[in-house]
Design goal:
By secondary structure, the protein is of the alpha+beta class. The chain has two helices and seven strands. A seven-stranded antiparallel β-sheet has the order 2-1-7-6-5-4-3, covered by helices on one side. Strand 5 and strand 6 form a beta hairpin. The longest helix has 18 residues.
């Protein structure tokens, strides 16, 4: 589930920024590697996935359908960098955190730090990602 939140937030922020003519993202087939470190887990977890990102998927309206209960705020961007705050409400409580995203059009990287209180224990999740465009979608 944490990968879904991370991937959704990346795509959502890409869309907001594409609309604002900020960071440029080239639609196509992307390879994205996510590495998550959680305070309650001894080893980081890494997942590599390939996603076909179309221009339609970069539409904020389309992405809001998949954003679950997450709200993004305080989005700041330059021509290559994006930062934001994010709050997600789910059945286990509320997760809050910050993120950073950098893009060069066909490459991206960034990180997101989230924290929540789960049954009286603090849970911290740090997710780092990097991605590269592999080519056109097939």
């Amino acid at each position: 589930m944490r990968y879904r939140y991370t991937l959704t937030s990346i795509l959502l922020l890409m869309a907001f920024n594409a609309q604002a003519e900020g960071i440029k993202i080239t639609p196509g087939k992307w390879q994205i590697q996510l590495t998550s470190t959680m305070s309650m887990m001894p080893q980081p977890m890494t997942k590599t996935m390939e996603e076909c990102i179309t221009a339609d998927q970069l539409s904020p309206a389309e992405l809001m359908k998949d954003s679950g209960n997450c709200k993004v705020s305080d989005v700041k961007s330059t021509s290559s960098d994006l930062t934001w705050n994010m709050v997600c409400k789910n059945h286990g409580g509320e997760m809050a955190g910050t993120g950073h995203f950098t893009s060069a059009g066909s490459q991206m990287n960034g990180s997101m730090d989230m924290a929540m209180n789960m049954n009286g224990q603090a849970l911290k999740i740090q997710t780092k990602w990097n991605g590269k465009r592999l080519g056109a979608c097939k």
